[in-house]
Amino acid sequence: MITLSRVIRPFAFLSITLTSVACQAIDNPDAPNYLDAFQSEASAYEQAIFEESQTTSDSMEAYREYIAFLEDELVKASSALAEELSASEKDVFEKSQSAWEAYQEAEKVFVSRVWTPQNFGSSSPFSRLAFYADVLRSRVELLQKYRLQF
């Protein structure tokens, strides 16, 4: 039996996918490609973590440097985007950023409570750093995608 949800679900997925692709395609061709520049710089940190580090301690230190870079880039991208927005848009963006910061904090709590030495052994600190970096990187990339529109 075909249910309404079985019919609607694929169309909803397709709609979201096409909208996402279309939104990414509409950018300002005269604007610098902030996203590519960020990804290029981030890849150097990732290479240090995964290819250049000789020990776990080296990898963890490289992750800490990467996270410091990501936190700095988050501040820069947020500030740069805010400068492009009108007063009312900036107000909405600040609310969005506050909500994201609450999400970020909730993710930190979740990861720190689950990826413990008891659950994951000696790799738990490394995993926590990796997850935290993923959360930061995804936000910076999204903000850079927003900036491409201006």
Task: Tell me what you see in this structure.
- The protein is mainly α and 150 residues long.
- It has one domain (31-147).
- It is 84% helix and 0% strand.
- It has 6 helices and no strands.
- It has helices at residues 4-25, 34-52, 56-84, 87-114, 117-120, 124-147.
- α2 runs antiparallel to α3 (56-84) and α4 (87-114) packs antiparallel against α6 (124-147).
- The N and C termini lie far apart (48 Å).
- Residues 53-141 form the Lysozyme inhibitor LprI-like N-terminal domain.
- Keywords: Signal.
- It holds the Pfam family LprI.
- It comes from Marinobacter segnicrescens.
- This is Lysozyme inhibitor LprI-like N-terminal domain-containing protein.
Count of distinct structural domains: 1
The percentage helix is over 70%
- Count of helical regions: 6
On the 0 to 100 scale, the average pLDDT is 87
The SS-based structural class is mainly alpha
Order of helices and strands: HHHHHH
Q: Sketch the major β-sheet.
A: none
Percent of residues in beta strands: under 5%
Distance between the termini: 48 Å
Overall body shape? flat
In summary, what is this structure?
This is Lysozyme inhibitor LprI-like N-terminal domain-containing protein. It is built from six helices and no strands. With 150 residues, it is mainly alpha-helical.
Topology:
Layout: H1 4-25, H2 34-52, H3 56-84, H4 87-114, H5 117-120, H6 124-147
Task: Describe the structure using short key phrases.
LprI-like_N
